[in-house]
């Protein structure tokens, strides 16, 4: 499987706090190409489907409510070693543990409102990208 793509969302907290531009600038300056991108709102049903792998986790209900609480930016990004490099760029899931200068360190407030999502494997990057984008929406 190719290892040069990842999937990201700029979450409702970061959108509401005016950080779309700041986050996209970090992504582009870090060498990622934007293959696909859209500004949309997830229904609770769609958010639940996207995060269904976490269905049994105690935070699932709050996660679904949060991810459907306002618009998000969804994107497929391309770069050599995309999964690992993007996870480095965004920092730890819990922003209080994220390295200085990472996206979550700069733009996130809590583990729930943690500014961005990043795929954790090549397999999930493909599943997540396919969830949002058709072949005609990729460049
Ligand atoms: P994300 O990378 O989008 O994947 C699942 C999300 O669940 C995660 O970011 C967090 O925003 C949220 N979440 C809330 N609590 C936890 C937790 N204890 N562990 C992992 N993720 C959590």
Describe this structure in words.
- This protein is α+β, with helices and mostly antiparallel strands.
- The protein has a single domain, classed as Nucleoside diphosphate kinase-like domain (Alpha-Beta Plaits), CATH 3.30.70.
- The chain is about 40% helix and about 15% strand.
- The protein has seven helices and four strands.
- The chain has helices at about 10-15, 20-30, 45-50, 60-65, 80-90, 105, 120-130; strands at about 5-10, 35-40, 70-80, 115-120.
- Strands 2-3-1-4 form a four-stranded antiparallel sheet.
- Helix 3 crosses helix 4 (about 60-65).
- The chain is globular.
- The two termini are about 20 Å apart.
- The protein binds adenosine-3',5'-cyclic-monophosphate (CMP).
- Adenosine-3',5'-cyclic-monophosphate binds next to loops.
Q: What small molecules does this complex bind? A: adenosine-3',5'-cyclic-monophosphate
Mean pLDDT: 97
Oligomeric composition of the shown chains: single chain
CATH architecture descriptor name: 2-Layer Sandwich
* H/E series: EHHEHHEHHEH
> What share of the residues lie within helices?
25-40%
State the name of the first-level CATH class. Alpha Beta
How far is the first residue's CA from the last residue's CA? 19 Å
Q: Tell me, briefly, the overall form.
A: globular
Reported for the largest beta sheet, the result is:
4 strands, antiparallel
Number of helices: 7
CATH superfamily: Nucleoside diphosphate kinase-like domain
Q: Give start-end ranges of low-pLDDT stretches.
A: none
CATH topology type: Alpha-Beta Plaits
Q: How are the strands ordered across the major sheet?
A: 2-3-1-4
Query: How many β-strand stretches?
Result: 4
- Return Rg in Å: 14 Å
Residue fraction in strands? 15-25%
């Amino acid at each position: 499987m190719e290892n040069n793509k990842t999937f990201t969302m700029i979450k409702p907290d970061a959108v509401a706090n005016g950080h779309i531009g700041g986050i996209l600038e970090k992504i582009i300056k870090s060498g990622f190409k934007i293959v696909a991108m859209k500004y949309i709102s997830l229904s609770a049903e769609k958010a639940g489907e996207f995060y269904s792998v976490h269905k049994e986790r105690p935070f699932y209900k709050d996660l679904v409510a949060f991810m459907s609480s306002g618009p998000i930016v969804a994107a497929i990004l391309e770069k050599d070693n995309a999964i690992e490099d993007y996870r480095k760029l965004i920092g730890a899931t819990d922003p209080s543990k994220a390295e200085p200068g990472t996206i979550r360190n700069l733009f996130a407030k809590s583990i729930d409102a943690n500014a961005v999502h990043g795929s954790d494997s090549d397999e999930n990057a493909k599943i997540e990208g396919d969830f949002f984008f058709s072949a005609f929406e990729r460049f």
